[in-house]
Amino acid sequence: MLHGTELRNSVDDLCKAELDMNQQDNNLPKEFDSLHIQDTCTLKERLQSNPIFKCQLPGLDYVLFVRGSGPYSIDYGFAPDKPPKEIIVSRKCAEAVLRGAQVYVPGVLACSAHVEKGDVVAVSVAVEQPCLDGGWGVGITRGTVLQGLPTDAQYLERNGLYIGQGTAMMSRAGIFRVPNGIAVDMNNRVFRLPPLHDVLEGEIFLQNLPSIITAHALDPQQGERILDMCAAPGGKTTAIAILMKDEGQIVAVDRSHNKVLDIQKLAGEMGLKCITTFKLDSTRSVARKTELFQLAEAQNSSDDIQKSVSVRSETVDAVPVITAGLSTDCPRKENDCSEEESPGAYLSKADRRKHNRRMKNGPGRNQSMGGRVEKSKGFSTNSFDRVLLDAPCSALGLRPRLFAGEETLHSLRSHGKYQRRLFDQAVQLVRPGGVIVYSTCTINPGENEALVRYALDTYEFLSLAAQHPRIGGPGLVGYHEFADGYTEEWLKPGEEELVQRFDPSSPLDTIGFFIAKFNVGTKESLAAMIQLNLPMVLEGNQV
To answer: Counting CB atoms within 10 angstroms of each CB, which of 45, 159, 426, 530 has the fewest?
Structure first.
């Protein structure tokens, strides 16, 4: 991991190396290294004229902007009597490929017969289609053989959905036999980005600009204790650790075993030591009194007996339990996708898809990648200096986005309710005088400005705080009344400049994103309710 001067020097070297590789030197101004970005329009012009350049926004001189190009026309070699060899990938895999990734084995759904290593293959995407049960699905069983005939899965729908051409890195049999690895080396893409594979490996991380701004908005300080409530895949977590110079403690949690492993892997690759990971459903981040009492008893008896449970010295309010791989990561009722068995539970799109696959194909084998992760039963109140809540959302701001048909008015409101439950937990965990940063990758005001309105109206000790750097646009002021009579309240006049809303149509040309920062005052009202054991009724749930 690089800090300070070392990191900036490496950024400069990477800029020069990539510019030489792309032979763009003659097109760059001589004052490239002393460029000062005055506004977002200047940034837009830079992105259009240069493939890679260093950001000159205050405090972001370690950030590189990478510009893609396209779309390009590709000759896939279609012929009436000889269709090209083809691979169909999932929508999420295709969206990653359009951002510059390779095709990895888990993303492959179907493949032509007799594909061997080294063959040139066309890559297309299977986009969800309406199902008979009223839902959405691709209708392809993984491993389907393609013949290039109208009877193939999604034959007509794939017309116009080809995303590039590449070289098969393994045979068809190998693709559906191994659990991971590169299936197709994409060397001819519809959209192209400068190659960064194996460049400064472990020292750079591809990330959207608003995500980097989020870490800076949190303003982490060395020696602080910080909670990242929905941390996977770990980009913001590692960015925070770098800003802290790897001094202090970051507790990164996620409810997915495999995603926790991803955070651990990324932190290890970047050499970061201050990150502690736990498997935890963030709607249960606050530990119950009985669990805290049990932990206190275990600590009091530690001088007399050897404890069988490992408790980290710097996270004494967490109760970790070691789990390993397939043996313990089995479906539990709390994570079950059935609304009948878990009434009122939030069901993400991923949960619904997983449930539909189980109903169609049976449970199959457990998909845990193995490895050790620690479970936590929650943390004590007021135990963190700062909390980042990058909440699960409708993701309507992500780009590219090939499909959004699963979202309905009801599902969008469900996202908002779930985010409020998470926020309620964050408020209890941060200490008085601390900071909460809330962010999403959606443009839906019901998950952005409406959450801010809820937070300020519910917790009188919260106040919006200024963010630095500020390059996003203002928030939305006012309200919206829906046809069913539901009124969604947004920001009040004067509050719009204290949040950052990134619009894909703005000159910045970023993903859609939203950031709000809250200062936490004295929690007298909240403390009184907890001390008197009074329930807080929030969105139909008792805390």
So the answer is: 159
The string of pLDDT tens digits covering residues 149-194 is: 888 877 877 777 899 999 999 999 999 999 999 999 999 999 988 7
Residue 430 to residue 427: CA distance in whole angstroms: 6
* Residue of 15, 111, 230, 441 marked active site: 441
Active site residue 441: yes
Sign of CA dihedral 252, 257, 258, 259: negative
Q: Please, which pLDDT band fits residue 327 given cuts at 50, 70 and 90?
A: very low
Task: Give which of 509, 518, 517 is closest to 208, Cα–Cα.
Answer: 509
Pairwise CA distance, residues 378 & 371, whole Å:
21
Pairing of strands 321-324, 479-481: unpaired
Angle between helices 209-218 and 235-243 (to 10 degrees): 50
180 secondary structure, DSSP code: S
Q: Do residues 109 and 117 lie in contact, with contact meaning Cβ atoms separated by under 8 Å?
A: no
Residue in 151, 154, 152 with CA at minimum distance from that of residue 128: 154
The Cα-based distances of 120 to 115, 174, 187, 265, 295 in angstroms read 9, 16, 10, 32, 59
DSSP-derived 3-state class of residue 467? coil
d(CA 165, CA 183): 12
